[in-house]
Specification:
By secondary structure, the chain is of the alpha+beta class. 38% of the residues lie in helices and 22% in strands. The chain has a five-stranded antiparallel beta sheet, covered by helices on one side. This is YdhG-like domain-containing protein.
């Protein structure tokens, strides 16, 4: 891991650690799931949010937001596919959550893997 990657990771972990509980624990779990699902992604801060990109110099593909609700979101740089079915041409881009259980972890891992291919 390069020193820039280490610095970026430290900034992401610092951002998460500054959150109040129980959000801090939930976001840390999501961070761990993202990195386990796609170990090649590089954590970084993107517009003030924890985010994950293919390299330290490329745009973020995934962000974690901690506003009124927590969410995992794909940026416009992520490869999008229409949902199909009843959702037609709509493209899923954000998933809100209040807590993280095993099923949520599994779904987040699926989403992350779909982004990195």
């Amino acid at each position: 891991m390069s020193s820039k990657d280490e610095k970026n990771l430290a900034q992401v972990l610092e951002k998460i650690s500054s959150m109040d509980e129980p959000r801090r624990s939930a976001m840390r779990r999501v961070h761990d799931v993202v990195l386990a699902a796609a170990p090649t992604l590089k954590p970084r801060i993107w517009y003030g949010m924890p985010a994950y990109a293919k390299s330290a110099s490329t745009p973020a593909l995934i962000t974690l937001r901690n506003d009124e609700r927590m969410n995992l979101a794909l940026t416009e740089k992520a490869p999008f596919r229409a949902a199909g079915g009843v959702d037609g041409e709509l493209m899923p881009a954000a998933w809100y959550f209040d807590s993280v259980d095993a099923a949520t972890e599994q779904r987040i891992a699926e989403i992350v893997r779909s982004v990195v291919g």
